Amino acid sequence: MPLFRRAVLRAAALAVLAAAVATTPLRAAEPVTVFAAASTTDAVQAAVARFQAAHPDVPVRTSFASSSTLAKQIANGAPADLYLSANVAWMDYLEQRGAVAGESRVDLLANRLVLVRPRRDAGTVQIDPSALPDLLGDRRLAIGDPSHVPAGQYAKAALQSLGLWAQLRDRAAYASDVRAALALVARGETAAGIVYATDARISDDVVRVATFPADSHPPIRYPFARVAGRGGASVRALYDFLCGPEAADAFRQHGFEVLADRAGS
Question: Which domains are present in the chain?
């Protein structure tokens, strides 16, 4: 074949290839879905915003609810990629069912348990948690439902430790998650509520009046893991980011303690 003709054919082939590339859309990164405990809503959203600033091509979806609700959804096949629980029991529940990648599990965050009151009722008065019955009077106490909500389970344990559970159990207003318990207090529907320290920070309508002793309830830990079979590049990138120093800074800004084993300082 003459050299000139060969060059013409090669140029034509390159032109066709270039046109094909120009008209074929690039494959977008697959979206990553994070299921996270309701108490982490603001912190996770802040951390995800930082991730997306660095990775604008990776869509991230978030779903926040009680850890138990999310764990059951994952166990039933909900398309989550990452799971952040407010206690170890619900992560254990999934790991025992092979629903999370066990090697990816890490205790990421820690929290404290506090007593809050409506700001209009409380002012800045601090009380001892043992004085809770007197504080309530004839009104009710908002807590997460201890049958399945981690914050409610911690609250029940703390009240049992203080010898108050038998006295107060029938006066508790059970909520579907810790943010719902916080809302009951903020609206003045209960005299007080037991929530996480990080939740007390987000509402101008409540005031923190006591902190429960750390030894009055199990340690409040937030285990984090990848969902089994969901290990694509985008999922791993977000997982690594949430375990890293930039996310740690966002978590601390929202009042969480970041556990040093994976997230750094």
Answer: 32-109+221-263 (3.40.190.10), 113-216 (3.40.190.10)
Q: Which two tokens stand for residue 249?
A: 């800074």
For residue 141, what are its two tokens? 């106490």
Which ranges of 55-211 does DSSP label H, i.e. alpha helix?
A: 67-75, 88-96, 119-122, 132-136, 150-161, 165-168, 178-186, 197-200
Q: What Cα–Cα distance (Å) separates residue 73 from each residue in 45, 67, 87, 135, 188?
A: 21, 10, 16, 38, 32
**3-state SS assignment for residue 173:** strand
CB 37 within 8 A of CB 150: yes
pLDDT in tens, 44-85: 999 999 999 999 999 999 999 999 999 999 999 999 999 999
pLDDT tens-digit map of 229-260: 998 999 999 999 999 999 999 999 999 999 95
Closest C-alpha among 222, 174, 188 to residue 117: 188
pLDDT digits (tens, 9 = 90+) for 13-48: 444 434 443 333 324 578 999 999 999 999 999 999
According to DSSP, the β-strands at 192-196 and 141-144 are parallel
